[in-house]
């Protein structure tokens, strides 16, 4: 781990490990407490199968409060739907023999499995229906009482898991969004360096796809966490900046990188590459520095970095491009080379505009942190 040496004592190493994995350790503690609490409550209420309360509590205890909220309501929706349908099948079909039981089981599972495949929110519905249909054959309870028991057990486990997530070491999704966005910006900085190198040496199509796919996956994960953060804001469980502008800005930056990648599939012509090599190197370094500084600002809740270095590098690049056109170099380019040359310039202009928007978004995300700091500094 960074910053740890052989001379570091065991307690310092343990503390560093705990700090590095504090979010995961908090989840472990919440999940354990949720399991124990749901079991004790199920026993106190004399529920037939405390197992389902415990399993539900563990399932809905997630990394963030927003994710726990979604898991709780999704699990309850699937359970209630499966219990109602399974109970109705149990009432309508009499399990007088094995064939009747198999028929009832098939009728209970097939439509719910289809619904779950269409809408994952109801993925637990087929399982609940199976339990409601089969439990009466083992315990001699009625289908209706079996359905009621399942809903009660799952509701108990679901709400226990959610309240433990909300009250005990709560992890809000907004800091997770900031951390994920920072990682994505650093990934974009690395990608831009690789793409600009392609203007000199050319870029393999498979390598280009790996770069773009990696950023796409990072944005997909960020969207999931962003939904959790907005769910918390809507339920007034947490406060923070709107995640929408941040996610949209990162998506636009990804589109800019796609344009740069298309321009970098083949090296620029020698006459152009020689003249633009130094300006492009400075542009790449300035964008890299700005994206990484923005990532650090998001993590720390700090103000946006300066755009001065980027704008100076772009001005020098634009001046050299103007000189190339004035000297007639661009008129000698093939149609493909000219298209990639001008597409590169457009992409860099768009990146500049989107980095300006990124600065405004970073400033918005710094405001809640600043207000929290002021609140802590105020005397009692």
Q: Explain this structure to me?
A:
The chain is mostly helical and 380 residues long. It folds into two domains: 158 residues, no CATH class; 199 residues, Methane Monooxygenase Hydroxylase, Chain G, domain 1. Helix content is 81%, strand content 0%. The chain is built from 13 helices and no strands. α6 packs across α7 and α10 runs antiparallel to α13. The C terminus is likely disordered.
Describe the secondary structure blueprint for this structure.
Elements: H1 10-20, H2 22-44, H3 50-60, H4 65-92, H5 98-118, H6 125-139, H7 143-167, H8 173-201, H9 205-234, H10 243-263, H11 270-300, H12 308-326, H13 335-377
Helix pairs in contact: 2-3, 2-7, 3-7, 4-5, 4-6, 4-7, 4-9, 5-6, 6-7, 8-9, 8-10, 8-11, 9-10, 10-13, 11-12, 11-13, 12-13
Features:
Methane Monooxygenase Hydroxylase, Chain G, domain 1, 81% helix, 380 residues, 0% strand, disordered C terminus, elongated, 2 domains, mainly alpha
Rg (CA only): 28 Å
Q: What number of structural domains do the residues give?
A: 2
Beta-strand residue fraction? under 5%
Helix content: over 70%
User: Based on the structure given, which CATH architecture of the largest domain is correct?
Assistant: Up-down Bundle
- Through-space gap between termini: 39 Å
Mean pLDDT: 83
Stretches with pLDDT under 50, minimum 5 residues = 371-380
CATH topology heading of the largest domain: Methane Monooxygenase Hydroxylase, Chain G, domain 1
């Amino acid at each position: 781990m960074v910053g740890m040496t052989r001379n570091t004592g065991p307690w310092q190493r343990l503390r560093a490990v705990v700090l590095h994995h504090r979010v995961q350790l908090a989840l472990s503690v919440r999940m354990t407490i949720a399991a124990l609490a749901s079991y004790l409550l199920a026993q106190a209420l004399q529920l037939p199968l405390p197992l389902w309360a415990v399993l539900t509590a563990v399932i809905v205890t997630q990394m963030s409060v927003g994710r726990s909220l979604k898991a709780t309501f999704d699990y309850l929706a699937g359970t209630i739907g499966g219990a109602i349908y399974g109970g109705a099948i149990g009432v309508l079909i009499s399990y007088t023999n094995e064939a009747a039981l198999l028929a009832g089981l098939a009728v209970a599972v097939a439509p719910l499995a289809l619904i779950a495949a269409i809408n994952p929110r109801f993925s637990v519905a087929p399982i609940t229906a199976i339990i409601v249909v089969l439990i009466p054959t083992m315990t001699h309870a009625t289908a209706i009482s079996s359905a009621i028991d399942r809903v009660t057990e799952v509701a108990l486990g679901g709400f226990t898991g959610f309240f433990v997530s909300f009250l005990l070491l709560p992890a809000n999704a907004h800091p997770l969004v900031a951390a994920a966005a920072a990682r994505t910006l650093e990934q974009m900085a690395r990608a831009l360096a690789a793409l600009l190198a392609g203007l000199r040496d050319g870029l393999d199509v498979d390598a280009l796809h790996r770069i773009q796919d990696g950023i796409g996956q990072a944005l997909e994960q960020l969207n999931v966490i962003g939904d959790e953060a907005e769910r918390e804001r809507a339920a007034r469980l947490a406060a923070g900046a709107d995640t929408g502008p941040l996610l949209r800005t990162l998506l636009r930056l990804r589109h800019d990188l796609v344009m740069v990648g298309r321009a970098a599939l083949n090296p620029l012509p020698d006459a152009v590459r020689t003249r633009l090599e130094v300006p492009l190197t400075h542009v790449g370094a300035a964008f890299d520095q700005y994206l990484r500084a923005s990532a650090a600002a998001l993590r720390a809740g700090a103000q946006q970095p300066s755009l001065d270095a980027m704008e100076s590098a772009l001005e020098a690049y634009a001046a050299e491009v103007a000189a190339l056109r004035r000297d007639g170099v661009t008129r000698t380019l093939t149609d493909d080379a000219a298209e990639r040359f001008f597409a590169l310039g457009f992409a860099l202009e768009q990146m500049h505009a989107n980095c300006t928007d990124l600065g405004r978004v970073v400033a918005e995300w710094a405001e809640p942190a600043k207000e929290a700091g002021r609140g802590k500094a105020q005397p009692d």
